[in-house]
Amino acid sequence: MATDWTKTSFHRLKDKSPSDAPMQWKMARDALGTRELGVSRFTYEPAARMPFGHRHREQEEVYVVVGGAGHAKLDDEIVELATWDVLRVSPHVWRSFAAGPEGLDLLCVGGRRPAGGDTERAPGFWAD
Q: Where is the Cupin type-2 domain (predicted)?
């Protein structure tokens, strides 16, 4: 019998981060079987940065800082982040994250993923 709910744990999900990145990326969309939204957890080691920037054609995203602190780079603006901050980012805005000295733990909630995806990446987004 099919149910109208699904449960998983981020502890059970496979890390999808680049092999040389000092962070973990765990995406729950497939494990939950969601059609309308995705939920991901990004756990950064102290002083780690996402190795690229990204934006979307259609997906709006909301990020919730559940631990630690750091910064978001939104286009050319740097925004400080602290535990329990909630940040909404429009699809067209380039974004990337960097952890502070105690690390950064983010939950990301995004909308429906278009067929074939809608993510564009920019290597070297944090170029100093």
A: 41-109
